[in-house]
Amino acid sequence: MSPTYFPGCTLSTKASGFDASGRAVAQSLGMTLDELAEWQCCGATFPLTTDNSMALIAPTRILAKGQNAGGHVTTLCAICFHVLRRTQNFLSAHPDMLERINWFTEEPYEGRTRVSHFLELLRDELTWEGLSSRVTRPLAGLKVAPYYGCLLLRPKDEIGLDDPDEPHILHDCLTALGCEVVDFPYASECCGSYLAASKPELPEKLSQEIVASARRHGAQAIVTACPLCQFNLDYPQKTTFSGDTLPVLYFTQLIAVALDLEPAAWGMEKHYVDPKPLFA
Amino acid sequence: MIKRALVIGAGIAGIQASLDIANSGYEVVLVEKEPSIGGHMAQLSETFPTLDCSQCIMTPRTVEVGHHENIKLYTYSDLESVIRDQETGDFTVRIRRKAAYIDWGVCTGCGACVEKCPFKVESLFERGIGPRKVVYTLSPQAVPNKPVIDAENCRYLQSKWDIEAGRVPAVDAKGNPAKPKCGACAKFCPIGAVMWDQQDQIFEEKVGAVIVATGYDLFLQSRLPEYGGGKIPDVVDGLAFERLLAASGPTAGKVRRPSDGAEPKEVVFVQCSGSRDPERGVPYCSKICCMYTAKQAILYKHRVHDGQAYVFYIDVRAGGKGYEEFLNRAMEDDGVVYLRGKVSKLFREDGKIMVKGADTLSNRTVEIAADMVVLATAMVPRTTNRPVAEMLGLAIDDNDFYTAANEELDPVATGVPGVFMAGAALGPKDIPETVAQASGAAAKVLSMFQKDKQSAIGHKP
Asked: Which of B348, B349, B356 to mutate to test the interface with A (most CBs of A within 10 A)?
């Protein structure tokens, strides 16, 4: 059963390049990604209080829609993935909360929708060998630093995608594309997250450190799976950054290049630091 | 009842308990798994809060144990079984003395074999700071001062066993019978003490009381991936730093960082590494780390005058005689900078270790480019606590430390008559507390042995 694709708000607006490249890559790899009908926001944060039923309603609605559309929802956005997977885990462990939300939404959710991240599908279903065999324009010699951020990996027990302390899922993906993967110590540091809205100077400072470290380790680009990480690392480079800049790409964009798709499918129009010269 | 005691473990707790019992005129069977006695205290440089040399204050006791006519010492030995006779309350103990491949009966401890052995391996005793030879004693002051051959890494024994098992051709390329390689120790031993065919030996002893003093281990750095997971050479644990500070250690007491032998000018100490962390580590306080970190920072400063020590702490627990004063000395006399907060992560960059932490008093994040980092990793129970507890019928707590039947009023007694315990096997504790507990356990054994005398006094007309 092919999964239903949940783009989420950011991928429909600011991160449309992530969405476009993701869809193009999926199609080229023969993985059908039908968009979930009538979706709304995932809630954007997983509630940190133990009794916050209101905050769980939005993601539960998506899970319920996913249940009616085949029972498997996949995302590209690390934040949506984080919220949906944790909500799913929480509801499995708390049937009383599920009952309460169902009573409120009147959209009965049975609690069994599978939530996946597109990286997971590449790893577990297509496999890295499978991806590698489809590469027609190997990115040999391109030095990229995988940047994981927090939400894709943590908390480990609930997300379970990879080891947050020594993650390698992006490493493996980029290696399959022929890239030279650059390790750097800030790969799973926080980017500043939503403080970009309330205290922009904080992500600006973090961005400076993260980008500078990736550069010091020889990277020509940073690769991420999260639209907020992308924004927080990319935007300050245009505005407050002192030093050499570094393009910040989505992993799907690099796959699109490696599969030799049309540049229109790369979705590289909205970056603050233009990544296109890397592929000229 | 047999008036003879078994003491399991010859660290400072086992040594103290054995001496107390032996000096009262009763026989003690003391079993130690390592080749020599002294336990972790033999690894320490100096002790807090007096800064006494650890080896120096312990050596009179280890020597006394080695020579005591009432102490029967089994080193390099494991406990096979302890069976309690329900009728008499006596214990039958089976002890396996591991093959040392050296006849200790004739060995004079001259050290020629150690000197001539051409192979070095990592030493657990030196905690990665320095190597040891394949034939070795733990330290120059070892009691007994008899070496053992580490069969797993011994070229001669391995090649001998390969030939015997037919894993290599029985004749070499020239048609001569294959011979084991090396054998340097045997060649240079002036009295022929090397015994290649020595086997493990089983001994049986009968005792009327048992003291469990099996000590502790340290929380493994591999469980702290945010602190490098043990993969950064210049991030070491507290015991490794003790070896760096110890005059008898691999660097003769000079502070040299493991990666390149340079003198570290900025050293960061991280307290509560793995302890007080119910989510990812152990929930309890490791108790001794505040004090030994202060001690190590002071000693570091005494060795490296232009160096700077930093200590990250959650809060400082200095409850003991002279402890708070000692801590103030670290801050005031030796300029150790105490930062209240946790270190979130550290990593290597350009030969430095970048330490990222928080100072919750100034409400700021702190980043220190350190030359070396010392993790005050938690004291944890030995993995053998569980099997030993099962063997003797003892209770262990949620963390696998032994637990007394009455923690408040009878802290060294177990639920099994005749079995007592002492030291860090019950939970984290420092040397004075360990020794006090060991004497307590010994007193319990002695009062058991002297029950008949007490009642005689009690019935005086």
From this structure: B349
